[in-house]
Write a structure and sequence with these properties.
This protein is an alpha+beta fold. 41% of the residues lie in helices and 13% in strands. The chain contains 9 helices and 10 strands. The longest helix is centred in the middle third of the chain and has 21 residues.
Amino acid sequence: MMSTEFNFQALMPDLIMDALQQTGIVVDSGLTALNSYENRVYQFLDEEKKRYVVKFYRPERWRAEQILEEHQLAQELAQAEIPVVAPLVINNATLHNHLGYYFALFPSVGGRAFEQDNEDQLEWVGRFLGRIHRHNGSRCFSARPTMGLEEYLTLPRRELENSTLISGRQKAMFLQACDQLIAQVHEVWTTDWRPLRLHGDLHAGNILWRDGPTFVDLDDARNGPAVQDLWMLLNGDRRDRLYQLSLLLDAYAEFMDFDPRELALIEPLRAMRMIHYLAWVSRRWGDPAFPRSFPWMVEAEFWSQQTALFIEQAMLLQQPPLQLMPVY
């Protein structure tokens, strides 16, 4: 069992190529690192000039059965002709292990960035999300978690209290704002929703546009409310978000019913993500990739901004939730 202080420094090119060779794939060129913090992801060409992506999972984050549930969902969706990048089956397996590293191979797919302010693209994504959720609603994950306050608030709050990235009086002020935000979430959070298997982290960066949307990176897949896969696609002021939401849900409803009561979860989910994100970076600070990628996390001004954002979000939670508006 690897230590909880594990990082990816041992994952050198020779080890990566040895891992790939055990699956029968020989790297010819490339082995280019792609943008990923939680895992390590590389693109390469094999001897036949076929392009692949290999993903090495961070040890001790997911158990093998949890990773396999992610793989199974992606394969199910691909078989249902939903554009999801699914892991390749090699030697009758999607998940491989080399020296304690779990890894999977995927086809390399290109595409443009998803345009959140493009109405046609937003409607297209809404229709596919309706299809995804209709398919996923047949059952829940058994090994992967269900979204809840323990994972997204209680444990992150403990991590932030122990974090060395912020200290002194500023830390006390930040934690006070954090506690106020957590208390506000507790007031409005409800579990009166039907759990679905979710993508879990469906922001614009996890959608590629290739004559339509292609959904990538199900690493954060879990059970939760349908609105979790919708709210991160909204941006702009309240009126903009209302309009985008109506476009999304009008298209979504072609394939799947949406419970409008879940709209009241949008701001609580945003607050949960804000707190969870900061704790995640703090928890991973021992990985050299994180100080390089998030240098501002040690600056006092950053934590002052986060304190102000937490106070603002607590106020937003006291406002009426978004409601659907007619689309003309």
